[in-house]
Specification:
The structure is a homodimer of 134-residue chains.
Chain A: E1 9-15, H1 18-28, H2 33-36, H3 38-42, H4 54-66, E2 74-82, E3 91-102, E4 106-114, E5 120-129
Antiparallel strand pairs in A: 1-3, 2-5, 3-4, 4-5
Amino acid sequence: MDDLRIGQTAQSSKRITDVDLALFAAVTGDFNPAHFDPVYAAGTHFKEPIAHGIIPVGLISAVMAMKLPGPGTVFIQQTANFLAPVKVGDVITASVEIIELLEKRRIRLRTKCVNQQGVTVLEGEALVSVPKKG
Amino acid sequence: MDDLRIGQTAQSSKRITDVDLALFAAVTGDFNPAHFDPVYAAGTHFKEPIAHGIIPVGLISAVMAMKLPGPGTVFIQQTANFLAPVKVGDVITASVEIIELLEKRRIRLRTKCVNQQGVTVLEGEALVSVPKKG
């Protein structure tokens, strides 16, 4: 399948800001006080507001769409385990690694997000359809 | 666990607009031409631009955070199978149903997104931690 091979990796990093949380809430309607209300959040396990868990999942999708396997990628299946909170100001590095090449131009990737302290905040897998080379 | 029980459901609906795609791309950096480039999209299986697959996943998270089990919900695990494309203008109904009550204030939900024609565009499961009643 083109020049894709098992073990290929790609990644990109982004600082998560208040604006990201506000825009994500505008798209989805998810105004969970765990993300926006510091007084509420002070009473939770995490003590301060945390980012929506789906934001790092979106960073994974961006790495696949923009880098590996690249533009035109279509999602088929995705799993995510949320292992640690993402806080505003964290720099999240999303990475993907091809772990299986399948029929019908499909590939399976291991996906991971790590924060600036090296803590894995999200891990999972994705099954995607690879675009044909234009 | 409070008054949660197996079989409880909640849902909400939203029309997906160009603005949603633009905001989601701004948060994640996912400018896949499959979402934004009508000329590119005309050459794909779907013939026209489709929404980011993670947007309906975000709608699911919003139903959980805003309705069931409600504000303060924390994500632990999530799976999604992308079954059909979401197009701009589609009205997506995201629904969740409690399928298992677990220890440590955790519950498992079946999750689904259906478009205005009754086509299931996404299905999966979520494992979440239920907030304590304030």
